[in-house]
DNA sequence: GTATATATATACAGGTCTGTATATATATTT
DNA sequence: AAATATATATACAGACCTGTATATATATAC
């Protein structure tokens, strides 16, 4: 099991990275807020970059498992899952705990394609798109990849908008747009 | 008229901010690439933050004037402008000079809503959306604001995707999606 | 109670960053 | 040629950053 201190550091770093930016958050700040010391942080994470990568992994895994569980327990038909996708995403975005999507901000702060942080961000974005694609394939969509890309654009755009201004209501319109695109693709 | 050195610094900073990140680019690097010195930079810009703001302003103004000129010279009917919007945006994104949209990255690196950089980013995002909204209003779209928001989400999502991976082709699918959404809104 | 693992406290080395101070050079103008 | 504006060269102060070294404290296990 994961040490409570390690997981505390991960939680605090996730929050600080989102609210202050990754490069603007020093490890001194992280350990101060987490109520521990640098020695402990460097015991669990070999470097700040390693910490960033673990924060990204945890954030993505948490989101993906939450989302797929919501979809699996609340829908049966594949097309229903697809249509309910943005319902749950909206729920997630409008929850008070929402701080943004890790890989979107990380890729902006680490634009160099050779950076491990950038590479992980790109991989997570691809993974999410593939998950949508699998939903579309199950729902017998003809151009599943095309629809998945379009929906992921709406998703990333709305998250971006919500990161820029909390309570923007962007996801409500993304949901409407997704319904139009999905309905269109279903009748192709 | 603007000094050639000042404009050179702006051009270099724009490029470095996009390719390496804003916080990861020091003023020493900027002046070295621009072939000048720090003393000159601080003659034209009172601080790095001031330079960032001017870089953002120039980038946004350049894009907006280029886009509206393209639309005005190539289309007559308002609805035509709306439909051609993503044609030109795709052209802009796929041009070899494309380095990303300034305000999208800047808002990620400066998440604090009180930061002047964040505020300018948010304002530019709003301005762009309002421009789309004016196109939609001219084309007699019923819910012009709603469509404008949806199109801007597609736009920001596709730019985000393209920043993450050059040559992703995301804008091609954004263009298709925009056509579906616009056609739907026109027939409402 | 002694040994062992874990966490703390503190200091610091070496680097980078922004912004300024000081002195010199190069043009342009009169 | 002298005066003025503009650019350069260089050094540095003060702050912050990551990562480590050293010594101490606390808790669990045997």
Can you give a write-up of this model?
Two copies of one chain form a homodimer. With 188 residues, chain A is mainly alpha-helical. Chain A has helices at residues 4-20, 27-34, 38-44, 48-74, 78-94, 102-109, 116-138, 144-164, 170-186. Helix content of chain A is 77%, strand content 0%. The termini of chain A are far apart. At the A-B interface, helix 1, helix 6, helix 7, helix 8 and helix 9 of A face helix 1, helix 6, helix 7, helix 8 and helix 9 of B. The first copy, chain A, binds a DNA duplex (30 and 30 nucleotides) through residues 3, 5, 26-28, 36-40, 42-43, 47-48.
Structural class of chain A: mainly alpha
The rounded distance between the terminal residues' Cα atoms of chain A is 49 Å
Multimeric organization: homodimer
* Helix/strand order of chain A, N-terminal first: HHHHHHHHH
Rg value of chain A: 18 Å
**Roughly what percent helix of chain A?**
over 70%
* Spans of at least 5 consecutive residues with low confidence of chain A: none
Shape of chain A: elongated
- Total of helices of chain A: 9
**What fraction of residues of chain A sit in β-strands?**
under 5%
Q: What's the helix and strand layout?
A:
Two copies of one chain form a homodimer.
Chain A: H1 4-20, H2 27-34, H3 38-44, H4 48-74, H5 78-94, H6 102-109, H7 116-138, H8 144-164, H9 170-186
Helix pairs in contact in A: 1-2, 1-4, 4-5, 4-7, 5-7, 5-9, 6-7, 7-8, 8-9
The structure holds a DNA duplex (30 and 30 nucleotides).
